[in-house]
Amino acid sequence: MISPLQKLPPSLIALLLQFAAFMLVVSAMRQLGLHPAPLVTALLCGTLSAALSRIAGMARWWLFIQFIFAPALVLMLALDIPPGFFLAAFFVMLVVYWSTFRTQVPLYLSSDKVWQALACRLPTGPFTFIDLGCGIGGVLAHLSRIHPQGSYHGVEAAPLPFLWSWLRTRFGGYRDCTVRWGSLWNSDLSRYDVVFAYLSPVPMAQLWHKAQQEMRPGSLFISNTFAVPDHPPHETINVEDLHRSTLYIWRM
């Protein structure tokens, strides 16, 4: 049975656990009559928050974030950095990552070796291709040069990567290559011969269900790095890049 806590977005769970750790540490300090330095208190909060996150079953990479959050906050405040810097950083993160806190799909950029491996797996005749979460448009730009017989489309939800990829494809001289701003969940996959995604482990089960419902028989569903749970691919391609990427390929 799924607990109410597990139904919440991980970012909200992390925030609640940070608050719980802070309250527990402050309460314990008052009971013991202790008044440690702010950094010591922050380290205790971080340690307890990471422990609570582990108990709550959060992903391992969250544990480091939970541990470092409070100490990093204390150190930043000690540096007396102007508030405008943090406001600017917030807006930059907002336009780059947008709804990552909700979708749990951060901005990942495929390597050029992944592009090359993908290019070798595309149809030889005319075809339609969509990149779900196209980032700054690297995949589309590369493939449209290698396979000009294809029709390429991308969808991106984050404002700044979308603007970058739109300008890149609009004015870069790429033939039949377009990008639109929006959610991948609103894309009709029945229009495409090849559907490519480089997302995260979180949406893969839901995306697979969407692909099964919409994609045409014989079309290709390709995921970079992240497999579909309980559905072995028909083919895998190991890529010798920095991240040891793997292309998972399903024929629908």
From TrEMBL:
Gene3D superfamilies: Vaccinia Virus protein VP39
Any single biological process term in GO: methylation
Sequence intervals crossing the membrane: 12-29, 35-52, 59-79, 85-101
Keywords assigned by UniProt, alphabetized: Membrane, Methyltransferase, S-adenosyl-L-methionine, Transferase, Transmembrane, Transmembrane helix
Record bears the keyword Transmembrane helix: yes
GO terms, molecular function: protein-lysine N-methyltransferase activity
Official protein name in the record: Class I SAM-dependent methyltransferase
Species annotation: Sideroxyarcus emersonii
